[in-house]
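This is your field. Please look over both lines of this record.
***
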Amino acid sequence: AVAAVDLATQTVVGKAAVGDGPVQVYVTPDGSALLVANQGSEESPSTTLSLVDAATLVETGTVETGAGAHGVVVEPNGRYAYVTNLYADTMAVVALESLTLVASVPTGESPNGVSFSMLPPAAAATPEIVLPLPVHEEDADAGHTEEGDAGEHEGHH
């Protein structure tokens, strides 16, 4: 189940019944729905993404995405959701209007999180990786930015 919590009182104000082992929740850009990745367990993986009405907390539909649905993100225009499938080594692309699977893309071993960017490529799913991240320091007197290497930092979803 997925719970709605009143942050002021820290009390549960509602619950939505969804698939087995819900692990990540994403709110659609218009705020009308919640997408819930139902991962299950490695021994008994779930394979679904649940669509839940945000106002009523009622599950309005599900779609099969692949074994171990895990990370979920929605494009800013709300047309497509991207779901990583931890045990299937894929990323599913789901058309939200029809709640149908339109593509399943191989990702490599155990894709975890997924992010969306307005810059190409638009969506990418990877296991946890180590990324070299530049450090930007602004010189207040000169008004310019200097870039340096901060070394390697772990990137997580």
